[in-house]
């Protein structure tokens, strides 16, 4: 199961530490939450075009139980919008606040 996570994790550093963290955190009933959390974060990092240096090491992500965090609570990733689209987005953000 660890190998599947490792294979799809976008930042490949510290594999032995990540394996230890996975073994320490792993239990059968938590695995679905870990998978869901990983999928949500991988989608967020991809959509946000997060540079690899800003993606946590896999061991850190596991040790800090970041799979329990909800990336949808974060601001939406910024995209390359035209000036008009940016103005419209600012108005929408202002009106929704």
Task: Walk me through this protein's architecture.
The chain is mainly alpha-helical. It has one domain (2-96). It has helices at residues 2-8, 15-25, 31-47, 58-63, 83-96. The chain is elongated, with a radius of gyration of 17 Å.
Q: How many strands, which pairing sense, and closed or not: the largest β-sheet?
A: none
Run of helices and strands: HHHHH
Shape: elongated
Question: Span between N and C termini?
Answer: 42 Å
Helix content: 55-70%
Write the layout of secondary structure elements.
Blueprint lengths: L1 H7 L6 H11 L5 H17 L10 H6 L19 H14 L1
Short description:
This protein is an all-alpha fold and 97 residues long. The chain has 5 helices and no strands.
List keywords for this structure.
single chain, 97 residues, mainly alpha
């Amino acid at each position: 199961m660890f190998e599947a996570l490792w294979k799809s994790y976008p930042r490949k550093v510290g594999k032995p530490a990540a394996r230890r963290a996975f073994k320490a955190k792993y239990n059968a009933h938590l695995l679905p939450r870990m998978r869901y959390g990983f999928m949500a974060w991988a989608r967020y990092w991809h959509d946000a075009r997060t540079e690899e240096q800003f993606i946590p090491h896999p061991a850190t992500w596991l040790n800090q139980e970041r799979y329990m965090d909800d990336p949808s609570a974060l601001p939406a990733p910024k995209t390359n919008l035209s000036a008009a689209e940016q103005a419209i987005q600012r108005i929408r953000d202002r009106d929704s606040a």
